[in-house]
Amino acid sequence: MSLLEIKNLTTSFATEQGKVQAVRGISLSVEQGEIVGIVGESGSGKSQSMYSVMGLLSENGTIESGSILFDGQEISPVQFDGNAAAYEKLMEGIRGNSMSMIFQDPMSFLNPVLTIEKQLVEPLKNHKKMSAAELHQKAVELLTQVGIPSPEERLKQYPHQLSGGMRQRVIIAIALACNPKLIIADEPTTALDVTIQAKIIELIKELKEKTGSGVILITHDLGVVASACSRVYIMYGGKIVETGLADEIYYQPQHPYTSGLLACVNNPEEDTELRPIPGSPPDLIKPPAGCPFVDRCDKAMKICKMKMPPERKLSDTHAVCCWLTEKPASGKEGE
Ligand code: SF4
Ligand code: MG
């Protein structure tokens, strides 16, 4: 049994312009002790799919359908049949406890007027019964675990007294506090400079080894994924368009969008930041009937506009949704 198994998740947002179909029927899984990457440009649905899992969608967001099995338990609100209170109660017990999140921007997540210690022990107070002395001891351990020197002094400080890299370490310590089985890291290094980014990714890898947690790493940067993840899901236009082992994605990408992302990373003339592929993502208020990438794809064929390509399995681990990998049935080429 997988640690997390998502099937056919669809999430939408009500807006003044209409319903935005942000996540469109995605399926993915994470095993205990593995780091899985979800990669895509902003607006691809990668963060919203994980906010759906955590029950952290904004008020105008709804999970329309799908199953989310976490550690053997169904946690999709769809299964609660309108009983929002029961769903909230379940998620309050899970969030920050067996499942936790590392957010992109430490400054907006940390409370500027509370000490590091107060913020660090908060999930422990919510989920575990511990005495004041035990809480303090655990806070010291957590800072040590994430590589912050002089923890006793740091605990008394406020977020603005720490560097950006240290603040992100504190966020990671908060996420680790209750020994979660699954950690979801949403662009954890985007706000940091490059050398600190590498250190934070190293830290996440090390902690995964030590704790055996499953980790989902959400990023727009395939370079980050290369150094950390065993498997990767590529998202575009609310859909997973390719998935595979990190090596399969790097050395045998099959989807033109994946190749486009890789071309940006591999070009030594460019910095590691992804250069956007020309064109813009599809309007998810009126999602395209066919392949979401069709307007930006230089290999597009007639059929691409009309029909969504089915998922084609290329190996036990590698799958892609692109008409290029479909063998045309006799006489139907260019349909
Ligand atoms: Fe390009 Fe067609 Fe493949 Fe979509 S299905 S990525 S448009 S070739
Ligand atoms: Mg995001």
From TrEMBL:
Q: Any idea which UniProt keywords this protein has? A: ATP-binding, Cell membrane, Membrane, Nucleotide-binding, Transport
**UniProt topology in membrane:** Peripheral membrane protein
* SUPFAM superfamilies membership: P-loop containing nucleoside triphosphate hydrolases
Alphabetical list of Pfam families matching this protein = ABC_tran, oligo_HPY
Q: Does the keyword Transport apply?
A: yes
Protein origin, superkingdom: Bacteria
Q: Where in the cell is it found?
A: Cell membrane
Q: State if Transport is listed as a keyword.
A: yes
Q: Which PROSITE patterns match?
A: ABC_TRANSPORTER_1, ABC_TRANSPORTER_2
Do you know which SMART domains this protein is assigned to?
Answer: AAA (SM00382)
The chain positions of domain ABC transporter read 4-262
* PANTHER family hit by this protein: DIPEPTIDE TRANSPORT ATP-BINDING PROTEIN DPPD, OLIGOPEPTIDE TRANSPORT ATP-BINDING PROTEIN APPD
Which family is this sequence assigned to?
Answer: Belongs to the ABC transporter superfamily.
The entry's protein name is ABC transporter ATP-binding protein
**To which species is this protein native?**
Hydrogenoanaerobacterium saccharovorans
